[in-house]
Amino acid sequence: MPALVEPVPTRYSTGMRRVFFALFILAAAYSFSSTWTSTPTVQVESASLGGLSSLSVRCEIRGASVWLDHQVRGSVPLDLTGLTPGSHLLILRADGYYDAVITLSLAADTKTTVNAALQLRTGFLDIRVDPPSAAVIIDGESWSPGIIELPIGQQTVTVMAFGYQEQSFSVYIPERLFAFITAALTTAPFEVSDFSLSRDRFNPRNAGLKGLAQASFSVTAAGNAELRVVSPEGLTIHQAELGPFDDWDQSYDWHGRGDDGAPVPDGSYTLELTVKPAAGVEYYKESYAYSETLIVDSTLVVMPSGTYGALNGSVHAPEPFAPAADGFRIESLLYAWGLVDDADATGGGGALSASLSLDAGIDAGLGLEFAGPESAAARLGLRLSAPDYGPLGLAVLADGRISDALAGNPAWARLGAALGLGSPFFNIVAMPHFGAYWEGGLSAKAGLGAALTVSGYYLGASLSGSALTEALSGGFVLGWPIKTALEFRFAPPRLPLSFRVVAGLDWSPEPSAWMAGIAISGGF
Q: CA of 347: how far to CAs of 141, 320, 343, 350, 516, in Å?
């Protein structure tokens, strides 16, 4: 009796499947010609053109050349007039893109607007990597190994995986064809580098990033670390285990608190870090040890702040004291406004500002304000602070607003002095100022801004106001409106964000105006 033989099913390897997939993509690519028929957006409107036609050509690729009836006419955006009605051939060309070919039929006394898109000229990279988990980096973008569609031309390809040495390749991507790369990464020996602290002095009671110190370092392979914080008396008050590592970049935040969760006393502390490779990992050194000094200083008080123009402060007055620490802050504000006795007279606007503070006593800011498409302005500010003397703060300030200087949207350049009294937790500030104002004409005016602020590390509130004279050429006459604002501030612990809610009232014999808004800011 013959032996029974079990049929063996046909199996295709992964490599064979990739070949079939590549051939499919290649065939699909060849189904396109070097030109392609674009499906543009076409708008036609009637116009009195003496029996002729006009054509406006737009494209997302700026500078693309425009050919009409096989003659180059310019580059987008392009407006053509005096065209003969009838059929026309429009072609858009740009380096690295396929030509867009559009057949148009222009009617007499019409204006036609064409918005067209161009298709990128591409080829394919088939890259195979060991290990398969590696990342393929091309022009700053990360891909998984496999078949990748790319713009034609020379490309730099970097292959990297944690625990392995990265490799880079230069490869030419042919149009509608394949380039191939096979990469086998070699394991990387364990190394540690780039140890640093985000700051060497901080107050653990502060909100945001000003209330912690971050230790950062880089590793090349799997490992572990032990971190200790040692008190001035030589006692370990905090320790942590880090790892096992599965990425290059490592960090740990110490919030200035002991293992009991309470802020540690002021003083000089030592942060010690010991980093070791995992078992079985090749290494150059058995361990890496780092030690840095950290100063905990409760006098370094950073409160949640608002914005005065483009500088830190309240709505109508700047901060009264010198900056406690270096910092950078960006804020975005959205608000609504209206007239008190006219419910139909309402609107909205917003502001965006960026400010830089240095503990040397310098603040600088730049901002944009907008209240609709026809009302916008830029804000500039610079504040120089004297060293704080007990409860007293003194600063000089230059403040500018750049606008169209029409009614309701003034421009100005002014100088002022900020006089503060109190502490970061409770203070008052007054800022007399003098400036040149443009609003339909040039005039000199004087003014006064003031604020009362109460704050903790996470929550704060401020009441501020300002008044401005009429043109001083007519004498010292108080102008309207008198502006007031109330704001509440919140800075969450351990986050680089803060929030502000503001409500304002501009008092005037004419209809008084109100505003209400919310702002979010981020900084470090």
A: 42, 32, 11, 11, 11
Residue that is last in its domain, among 296, 331, 356: 296
In this structure, is residue 310 part of a structural domain? yes
Under 8 Å CB-to-CB from 207, ≥6 apart: which residues? 302, 304, 457, 458, 491, 492, 493, 494, 495, 498
Asked if residue 364 and residue 258 are part of one domain, the reply reads no
Spatial contact of 337 and 346, defined as CB atoms under 8 Å apart: yes
Same domain? For 178 and 231 the reply is: no
**Residue 278 included in any domain:** yes
- Classified as helix, coil or strand, 21 is helix
The parent domain of residue 108 ranges over: 35-116
Residues 412 and 389 in one domain: yes
98, 139: one domain: no
Distance (Å, rounded) from C-alpha 484 to C-alpha 470?
18
* Spatial separation of the C-alpha atoms in residues 231 and 228, rounded to whole Å: 10
Residue carrying the six token digits 């559009």:
102
Cβ burial, residue 198 (10 Å; 0-12/13-18/19+): middle
User: What distance lies between CA 105 and its chain's CA centroid?
Assistant: 46
pLDDT tens-place values along the chain, 524 residues long = 333 222 333 333 344 445 444 444 444 444 444 455 557 899 999 999 999 999 999 998 988 999 999 999 999 999 999 999 999 999 999 999 999 999 999 999 999 999 999 999 999 999 999 999 999 999 999 999 999 999 999 999 999 999 999 999 999 999 999 999 999 999 999 999 999 999 999 999 999 889 999 999 999 999 999 999 999 999 999 999 999 999 999 999 999 998 788 899 999 999 999 999 999 999 999 999 999 999 999 999 999 999 999 999 999 999 989 998 899 999 999 999 999 988 888 899 999 999 999 999 999 999 999 987 678 999 999 999 999 888 999 999 999 999 999 888 999 999 999 999 999 999 999 999 999 999 989 999 999 999 999 999 999 999 999 999 999 999 999 999 999 999 999 999 888 999 999 999 999 998 899 999 999 999 88
Domain boundary pick from 140, 155, 184? 184
The answer to whether 185 touches 162, Cβ cutoff 8 Å, is no
In a domain, 494, yes or no: yes
Q: Which residues pair with 399 in a beta bridge?
A: 381, 414
How many angstroms separate the CA atoms of 449 and 463, rounded?
A: 11
Question: Residue 17 domain-assigned?
Answer: no
Report whether 446 contacts 433 (CB < 8 A).
yes
What single-letter amino acid sits at 129?
V
